Amino acid sequence: MRLLDKVLMRWRFRMALRWVPPGVALLDVGCHQGEFFRRLGTRLGSGVGFDPLAQPYTGERFRLVAEAFPPATPLPPASFDAIVMLAALEHIRDNADLPGELHRLLRPGGRLILTVPSPSVDALVDLLCRLRLADGMSVEQHYGFSPGEVPTLFPPAGFTLEHRQRFQLGLNNLFVFRKPTGAGPEACGAAEGTV
Predict the structure, then answer these.
(1) Which of 42, 43, 63, 131 makes a 20 to 30 Å CA pair with 36?
(2) Statement: the pTM of the whole predicted model exceeds 0.85
(3) What is the rounded CA–CA span in Å between residue 161 and residue 178?
(4) For 130-160, how does the pLDDT look when each residue is reduced to its tens digit (9 = 90+)?
(5) Which residues, 6 or more positions from 11, have their beta carbon under 8 angstroms from its beta carbon?
């Protein structure tokens, strides 16, 4: 990872950090090598990170699983206070079941925090890679996901959009969703008129 990759990653971290409460039980989808967990330090209560490129790790506060999300062995419901997906959603080819699974894993009142780059970033990152200023962090695995799709992807699963903000000169987007209190699977089905 080159210096520019690290600078951009830290910028994403700063955007997400203010939405993560101290003592949090955190799920990091697309965790890379656990950099966000390490950045949280003692603010992290516990954490689990999934990334096919992660080096498996089990430490005092968190563990990294070298596996795509969702895992083959389901995690218990309502396991996490917060879930982060920082520059990860655009790497998931089929995300149809993702919102429901994240909703299932998040405790009522918990937050889902995402950063999603604009599709135009791919050409810029490609140029930076050719100039050897960045490594691009698996940009070849971007599947054309647009930030404009995010506000419509998660509410049907029961999430409420709490905050949206552009950053990195408008090339990246922060989305914060909340799982409403008392919004278990039954409440979602009732709200949608299904049983």
Answers:
(1) 131
(2) no
(3) 6
(4) 555 555 554 444 456 678 889 999 999 999 9
(5) 167, 168, 172
